[in-house]
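User: I'm putting together notes for a lab meeting next week and I want to include a structural view of one of the chains we've been expressing. I don't have a solved structure, so I'd like a prediction I can at least talk through. The sequence is below, exactly as it appears in our construct file.
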Amino acid sequence: MTQSISPWTASNMKDANAQFESQVQRFLEDIIKDKSRHARFLNMLSMLEHKGSRRIMLSQMDQVLTQDTLQHLAEEARHAYFFKRQAERVAGHSLNGWTKDNTMCIEPSLMYFGRLGVGVENEVGRKSAYSWVSLVVELRACWFYEIYQDVLEHSNDHMSLKSILAEEDKHLSDMFAMCDGKYETLEKLSNYETKLFARLWPQLEQSSNQLKNAA
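Assistant: Thanks for the context. Below is the predicted structure for the 215-residue chain, given as structure tokens.
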């Protein structure tokens, strides 16, 4: 099916999140100057990417796995590895697992991800949850990583998210095709995710500030 509009237009995600753009940019500009906090933040992203790959695997256990699904799973796992490797590069030492000692805002982040999965499943049903959760997660990932990449390009950090963004953008296109024109559902679920993000963001800022003040 040829899509007549983009996932951004259908979801209204960018307009709904315009209020957060400057906050996110300032936050990222601040933490990349502090190796300790930046490493913990990167490890948090690694954890969330790992949870995403694990969710794909668990949700598809009783399904016929396609090449596209396996590729999606593999790329999300690779993203978890990428951010873990970058976190350890910035920290200058190993960061085994994801613990309160090496990961920023661990409990609120996991709560955000868990509530998202439950809320989407309640709306569209268990069988359809994989594609819809993936779709709204890819919207957030592309939105966030684009801001992050822009900040990185104007800093002294040589990390690049371009390959991650390319894969996330492809995932977004693939998942959007699977929504089959159900744009009202997409906007509803995207708005739900935005509300969860709005609850998570101040907790992430608080976690960062606590680490900053404790240093």
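A couple of points you could mention at the meeting. The domain at 7-214 is CATH 1.20.1260 (Ferritin). DSSP finds nine helices and no strands in the chain.

User: Perfect, that's what I needed.
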